[in-house]
Design goal:
three-stranded antiparallel β-sheet; 106 residues; five-stranded antiparallel β-sheet; mainly beta
Length: 106
Amino acid sequence: MALSLININVNVSGNSARFFNVLDAPLVITDGTTVAATDFLDDTGTAVTAFPIIANGYYNLYINGVLQEGDAYTVSATELTFNGVDGTLSAGTPLILEAVELLTVI
């Protein structure tokens, strides 16, 4: 039997969007605390109406520039929810949510 090679080309591209919120007041966080999507601005400074739902990708949350553990939050179209964490964020603390969607073409 002759050897046959198959050439498969896979291209992966991505789209990302970032959302910003600088807290106006202290935020006391307990399990289930939420921050509405409408409290964020996008890269152009436009008010957000909803977060994108990422089917093939991931979200990153940065608090005061520090990347947070993935299990510490969840994202829906309408809100960012903190899971299993407690603490207080001071007024003026920046929250940055990054949504990365990956597209694979074979």
